[in-house]
Amino acid sequence: MTPRVQSSQVVARVGALLRAVGTKEPAGASTTELARTAGLARPTAHRLLTALAAEGLIDRDAGTGRWSLGPELYLLGAGAANRYDIVEQARDVVIGLARETGESAFLSARRGDETVCVFSEEGSFPVRSHVLHVGIRFPLGVASAGLAILSHLPDREIDDYFRRIELEPAWGVEHSEDAVRARLAATRTTGYAVNPALIVEGSWGIGAAVFDRSGTPAWALSLTGVETRFRPDRQHQLGTLLLEKAHVLSGRLQTGRR
């Protein structure tokens, strides 16, 4: 194996570990948990985690031994926020969605082949879905946000995605390529994506894509709630509202307004 290939593998493993730690916030996670999530052998994960801790990129609780994100990541993130953070521009839109519908509302960002939730607002309805929270990641095509984003990509990029990613082994037969493509087709027809309780039983989601200045689907707004609140007639109502708000937010981002 050449040094260049070895270096690339180390970077990929470090990236997988950092993402794994991020999904376990704020409680943190053990070395074994993080190794499993990142798909690494435990000794490899421990060696890399120790090196990351030495750089301040992650922390380890001396009492519990659990790993969490470190102060250097905060500083790096603060610097990157000027380019990538749209929460301030989206805050009133997300809060407005939660207040108007009573459901929990979310903003998710695309990161490669995944979406990551970056902002949320709980709705007033007393029974809530707890599938989404800030920091959680899903592959494109699983949650409604990722399904909405994937549906707006060119066919060639969608084909490339399915060549790289197999959802069914981790997410079940409802996430076979044929099943996801059928939901993509439905999303292209209505404009909004519906997740009919495919992640957690009884928990539904609806999402709409948000576009950057180049017209690329880079974010998504979504609503989640219990099945009784997502009957077909209300799905259309919620989906239409999401599309309206996504259009407003896309316009802000394309003009640079706040």
From TrEMBL:
Superkingdom of this entry's organism?
A: Bacteria
Q: Name one Pfam family in it.
A: HTH_IclR
Boundaries of every HTH iclR-type domain copy: 8-71
Q: Which keywords are on file for this protein? A: DNA-binding, Transcription, Transcription regulation
IclR-ED domain segment(s): 72-255
The record's listing under SUPFAM superfamilies reads: GAF domain-like (SSF55781), Winged helix' DNA-binding domain (SSF46785)
Q: Would the keyword Hydrolase be found if you checked this record's keyword annotation?
A: no
**What is the protein named?**
IclR family transcriptional regulator
Species whose genome carries this gene = [Mycobacterium] wendilense
